[in-house]
Amino acid sequence: MHEIFELILSQLFMATHKSSKITVALLLILVLNSFSSFAQIDTEEVIDQSFNPTEMIMHHISDSHGWHFFGEGEDSFTLPLPVILWTDKGLTGFMSSEFHHDVEGEYVVESNGQNFVNYHEKIYVLNEGEEALEFDEETHAALNANRPFDISVTKNVASMLVSVLLMFVLFIGLARHYKKSKAAPKGFKNILETLVIFVRDEIARPQIGEKKFMKFMPFLLTVFFFIWISNLMGLLPGAANVTGNISITIALGLFTLALILVNGNKDYWQHVFWMPGIPTFVKPILAVVEILGVFIKPIALMIRLFANITAGHIIILSLIGLIFILETAGVAFISVPFALFITVLELLVAFLQAFIFTMLSALFIGMAVQEHEHH
Amino acid sequence: MELITPEYGLFVWQVVVLIILIFLLTKFAWKPVMKAVGEREDSINDALASAEKAKEEMANLKADNEKMLQQARAERDEMLKEAQEMKKSIIAEATEDANEKAERILEKAQTTIQSEKKIALAEIKSQVAELSVQIAESVVKKQLDDKKEQMNLVDKMLEDVKLN
């Protein structure tokens, strides 16, 4: 145990580089997972009470129906959120509280003549006449149920809506200021204005170019502030892990891809499909590489954001989890300062990732709309 | 695996929310903000440019003033010089004129004197002739008595005439 603990710490010291941070996160998950499997073997009769760090971490970084703040089981304080499902029989919905905090697929909710269960935060609709979920633990497939199209307002959606609301309040408030006076705003609004100008002058203008950057400013500003605010919100206790969710980052990456595909000019496509100025036999090979590149760019964007934010959360949760794994309050003297350090680092990462995502989006868009000098 | 499996519902939410967010923020926040910031920057740049221009104009004005002052000074100097010259020439002319006039007056006086002298001489001559006649008359009156006396008188008279 001690050796592994030391290994974690030494790895943490090395965790200054981005990629090594992700490595550490994965390593921690592996290590903690092995702890939990030991625990399961050793104490099979108390398996329900034993602390499972993987489950804890996954619970914290995954999406869920219902916004859990604290407490366990029936006593927990959870904000119920609407479950909205599109099934074979049409649209149906109910509040997540109707599952009574059950995530093991045991509590059946009836709605619209169908039976629903929540198994590990995934909603299943039971086949006609079935009363309980049967689950194959080996293949992880439901035997008598299938998944409806789930458009519930989950924890992530709710958190996203809070971010959106916050952005409306902040930036429409900023816009209102200019109706009253032409002068520069004071205080917090001045900070917001500085950030807007930062996005314009440090991201959009140099990457896209003087002529065309104004067209992409709304997208870049929205994405920058959405990611940053979501990142910061994710650091709050009990908050959702919005930008550390792959579905969210896929959507963000697709927006960048869509802008590149829609706005790419003739020059850009020529450079993709039939690169000028190179021997003809190389052109098809390069075309394959370039076409792959068109899609790899946004994929890299979405993986970078997802991995960085999730990794940060995993490290913090793992450090706190150590206290419960080792069952010694003394570990807190090491874990808590470390977790605090990582949290402060995450504040920086929150800004950095928003900046990098916006910066690279602007760069890729800039490449697609650039006017090449013909030689 | 669960971590990297996309959830379609969440994806749809994100796409819809982001589209609405971009649309609404563009309309109500980004456009007014960018416009106001741009306008402010333009006005600052304009103000700076016009200040620079004003400064330049001020410098030009100053230079013009200096030039005009210099010109005025030069003009004044020239005028003074001209006046000086004029004064000199006037004085010189006047002096010359006066000299000329004086000369002419003198000349005139001379000629007058000459003519007066001639007239006087002629008068004297005529008076002398008259006197001679009178003397001769008286001599003639006396001579009739004494021959010796007669000669004395003539001599004496001639002597007088010679003296004259």
Provide an overview of this structure.
The complex is a heterodimer of chains A (375) and B (164). Chain A is α+β, with helices and mostly antiparallel strands and 375 residues long. Chain A folds into two domains: 83-153, no CATH class; 156-369, no CATH class. Chain A has helices spanning 2-13, 18-42, 53-61, 155-180, 188-208, 213-234, 246-263, 266-273, 283-326, 332-369; strands at residues 67-70, 77-79, 82-87, 90-95, 109-111, 114-119, 122-126, 135-136, 141-142, 145-146, 149-150. In chain A, the strands form four sheets. Chain A has a four-stranded antiparallel β-sheet, with no helix packed on it. Chain A has a three-stranded antiparallel β-sheet with strand order 4-3-11, with no helix packed on it. In chain A, a hairpin with a 2-residue loop joins strand 5 (109-111) and strand 6. Chain A starts with a helix and ends in a 6-residue tail after the last helix. Chain B has 164 residues and is an all-alpha fold. Chain B has one domain (10-163). Helices cover 93% and strands 0% of the residues of chain B. Chain B has helices at residues 8-143, 147-163. The radius of gyration of chain B is 63 Å and the shape is rod-shaped. The model of chain B has no long low-confidence stretch (mean pLDDT 89). At the A-B interface, strand 11, helix 4, helix 5, helix 6 and helix 7 of A face helix 1 of B.
Identify the notable features of this structure and list them briefly:
heterodimer; A: 375 residues; alpha+beta; three-stranded antiparallel β-sheet; 10 helices; 11 strands; disordered N terminus; B: 164 residues; mainly alpha
